[in-house]
Amino acid sequence: MTIVSTRDFRANQTKFLDMVLRGEHVVLKSRRGSVRLMPVEDEKEEPKRDVTAEICQAMKDWKEYLETGKSDKFRPARELIDELRNL
What we know:
alpha+beta
């Protein structure tokens, strides 16, 4: 593990970022506290939703429902409103 001051980090950013990308542990130490640098790939990121595609699919499902009169794809309106509020 490498511990580096923020001043040294600013002067040698590329060096320390390359170390992190090679899998080495780098800790930045400052008056405000210490932080560990880590590559983004190591954290699980949720994929971004394609809301436009979801709306288009919902419209197709609704059209199918109107034509056939049956569908198991629709949820209660309250559930959809709650989901939209959380976006």
